[in-house]
Amino acid sequence: MTKVAGDLTDAPASTRRRPAPFVVTFYRSAIAKKWLMAISGIILLGYVLAHLVGNLKVFLGKDDINHYAEWLRELGEPALPHEVLLWGMRIVLLGAFVIHIVAAYQLTMMNRRARPQAYRSPRDYVAADFASRTMRWTGVIVLLFVIFHLLDLTFGTVNPGYESGNVYRNMIASFERVPVAIAYIVANLALGIHIFHGAWSMFQSLGLNNPRYNAWRRYFAMGFAGAITTGNVAIPLIITTGIYP
Amino acid sequence: MKVTLNVWRQRSPNDGGSFQIYEVDEVSPDMSFLELFDVLNEQLIEKGEEPVAFDHDCREGICGSCSMMINGRAHGPESGTATCQLHMRKFEDGATITVEPWRANAFPIIKDLVVDRSAFDRIVEAGGYITAPTGTASEANLILVPKEVSDAAMDAAACIGCGACVAACPNGAAQLFTAAKIQHLNLLPQGQPERWSRVIDMVDTMEEFFGSCTNHRECEAVCPKEISIDFIALMNRDYIRAQFKQRRLTGQKS
Amino acid sequence: MTRLHWSPGPAAAPAPPVGKAAGSAANGLNGRIPEGPIADKWSNHKFDVKLVNPANKRKFRIVVVGSGLAGASAAATLGELGYAVTMITFHDSPRRAHSIAAQGGINAAKNYRNDGDSVHRLFYDTIKGGDYRAREANVYRLAELSVNIIDQCVAQGVPFAREYGGLLDNRSFGGAQVSRTFYARGQTGQQLLLGAYQALARQVHLGNVELHERTEMLDLVIKDGRAVGVVTRNLVSGAVRSFSGHAVVLATGGYSNVFFLSTNAMASNVTAIWRAHKRGAYMANPCFTQIHPTCIPASDDFQSKLTLMSESLRNDGRIWVPKEFGDERPPNQIPEEERDYYLERRYPAFGNLVPRDVASRAAKHEVDAGRGVGPQKNGVYLDLSTAIARVGRDVIDERYDNLMQMYERITGEDPYVAPMRIYPAVHYTMGGLWVDYNLMSNVPGLYVLGEANFSDHGANRLGASALMQGLADGYFILPNTIGDGLAPLLGEDPVPTDDPAFAEVESAVSDQVKQMLSVKGTRSVDWFHRELGKIMWDDCGMARSAESLEKAIAEIPELRSEFWRNVRVLGENESFNQSLEKAGRVADFLEFGELLCRDALHREESCGGHFRVEHQTEDGEALRHDDEFSYVAAWEHTGDHAQPALHKEALEFEYAHPSQRSYK
Ligand SMILES: Cc1cc2nc3c(=O)[nH]c(=O)nc-3n(C[C@H](O)[C@H](O)[C@H](O)COP(=O)(O)OP(=O)(O)OC[C@H]3O[C@@H](n4cnc5c(N)ncnc54)[C@H](O)[C@@H]3O)c2cc1C
Ligand code: FES
After folding, report:
1. C528: pLDDT strictly greater than 90
2. Which residues in chain A have their CB less than 8 angstroms from residue C205's CB?
3. What is the interface pTM, i.e. ipTM, of the complex?
């Protein structure tokens, strides 16, 4: 596709992509993928926030959080049958998650192809920060964590004292294992770093740019990442250290 | 001054290549970085070794020919400055300086520090123009352009096409180059008729050659013309809008 | 002296005979100026030229060499018209052509400021600025077309500076008393070139223009007296390849780099037009070179090129030197009354805005007298402090921001703190291949545009007029005149590149390359270039005398023969080899420099950029001799060992009557 050096002028211009249905051509584009990542990112951010708000109820006591869990299942009733809205949300969430991951994977591959030969001398980055350069790693950590987290607290497969419907108890049971609590903390720090870049980056990907509020995009990302991380880290930390309950 | 240069030497596109170390004495702080290479090359010729190949022409920071990765930074340590405008006073006496070519799949190395950047031309050919065949133009002052718009278009149009954005981007993406050209034209009233097709055609061509943007901001940081990544955001927006736009209606004002 | 270097064809055969050299009228050259009143000539001419029917245009192939303003605009427009165009440039992209570096602006007689400008005034200023050594008809046409250029560029999206109301802004520029200069910050050339490049890119995409980058034209091919193509070398692979066409257009820029240090880009050279000259095209007025007054002085011996600070700085800057000889104080500590604002003193009417040559010689005068400033004592001050006090730093910042940054970057000094140091440097070459009103050289089928031709600027170019000329040539003139030469060729195919005419030139080109590689001497190509530059600058620079020129004419051939005995070009032909590229260019400069000096020697007068110390007024101003030298000197190559032959094209002035310039 790229022209061969030495034959600079005679190589044909790159070939055009074949026509295809709109959704396919749209998705082929990296900018569209980034746009989808931003949209799915917003859904995931919303979820992460709601999840945190709900889980902080653990500090209000057993009944509060269990009641909240029950409320989630009843959401949408009586218009919708039991748990339907919850499942709807779960499907949307899963969809967003899959899109976010698949697009990220494909873009990563594209970027690898764009520079098959790395620089041979050390890079001296000026603007690219730790968060932006570790998105894929923090992303992978978060993915692994989510899997574990589901097995631990949703399905209970890896939770020693799992009791369906008793969120409070399950959390305590899980965090009483120090290594698990540490893993939770590390994973949530990774999530925070991921959000720190992602929650700013999404504005760029969506094309939301206006000198009047550009600076606030950064503050928003910092604030959001900070709040989520503090909350998410606080739960295992406080439970494991026995400060609470 | 005296410096040690660690320079990437590669005989031909398919050759392996490696770093070579050269000492250059009698470096004047007022010398430009490319003049340092002139002196090095004189030295090499004297010794019967082939001089280091590097692209350069205007030596004023405007043609975009010069392209060196200096100590891990595109165009070296001084921000807003092309390699040819970098002066030795920015380095310490006795410094060791490592110089590599731009590296990207779409920028194959021709020799030493020279790469082929013609992928940029392909992007412009895809739509980086306003169709205005000679002779068709109306009186210039019939087109009013608000000063803010014209200034913003000029900020984007200042791009010199050096490729530092690609070189610096951890993803090897050419978004800053492409966005600068698209937005130069898309911001102006003259650019409106082709606005939506331009962004689609240019972005699609760009993506055939280069990586994708993950908003590292590294391109903006090394750009010798300090072109803002705001233009990338505007390009993203235009691209998505162009995808959904009912273009038959774009001639209508709301 | 035995000349070792290559000459066209086997055993220094004379250049192939040029067919019926266009306009070789008995009593000199004929520029084929159309009849009629000056204001009607161009319209009449457009009606009189032969046309090529739209359906037939694609049957004609035109080879355009050079992608600067002139070449890119021509190739794009010819492509739009439907011609099949081959574009050749040694740059890696057409956008890198030297035109990109022009800073200040482009003139046009729009009279948007309502300050008395008109096509006639621009015409008159250009003729007068050129010291009455340009063709009236050409200059009038240029002034007429200037307005269309602005329209064209705005339509393309060139982001010219604007006022708050959204209208185009103008400024006045060196030597002009009206504000007619359009600009895009300090990057006008860049924006205009990008406009032309983008139009060209569109044609490449549409398949009307075939683009060959990193391809250097090394010779012109002539068959039966017509230019039929060029021979090139691919700079990456070393492959020698011919391109054939019904016409060849050279838009290869100026030759300032014959002086080694100049403001031109490093790769700018004379090769294309010099080799065309050796094949029969006449070289006109090579001694008309322009020195630009506002460049940053050289800092040391490693200096590889000089950087221009846009002349627009003279609008706001005041030029001075200390009155005291060898005053070592920093500029801020020199009180007003101890400063000599010598331009304001000597030229009260124009002050700091006197034409380039006047300002340059005045600076040289001060520096030679020992009042130079800076570490090397090789500059004068350009001081913006009065303007900053008047309009504020913000306005100055807005006007010159990138220039200020550029200055600081290069010198390490902040121009807001201390005045800038400037000194003249070679900047532009008015001379070039001779062309007629159609922009065709004396070789049929060979057209020359932009700085590469000699037209329009006479002995001195006004600021902001080169961009105008390049674009007028490329967008508007050539596309209208080329049909005249092509129409009679309808039905003929281009000469195939396996024709013996091509084969012969190809082997000559390969031989020269081989010869340069085989010398294996001891001195680098740059060394020769630098030595040549020294000779040219010292003996044929800002002030020339018969004595200095004769000295140069004696020294250059010696240097040239040393080049062919002792140059060291390493590496091989078959790969990217910048020394080899440069060697070919320097070899041509070494021949061309001599012709430049000969022309300067023959022109026993001072005019515009050509200043002969023997010919000056009592106040040291240039003294023209209209009775003897009111002509274009067009030189014919008569063989490597022979003196060039002089052809004269008489200049007549019906509308702008020669007067001695006075800027007092
Ligand atoms: C620093 C600077 C500032 C200037 N500022 C102004 C200004 O403000 N206003 C103004 O009016 N003018 C200005 N000028 C002058 C003006 O820029 C030039 O005269 C003009 O741009 C020349 O354009 P051109 O198209 O003739 O040639 P160029 O732009 O020089 O283009 C020549 C082209 O020919 C190609 N070429 C040459 N030889 C060969 C070969 N053998 N084979 C293949 N390709 C070849 C090159 O690749 C290049 O693309 C300035 C000049 C300089 C140096
Ligand atoms: S050499 Fe032209 S930008 Fe550096």
Report:
1. yes
2. 13
3. 0.98
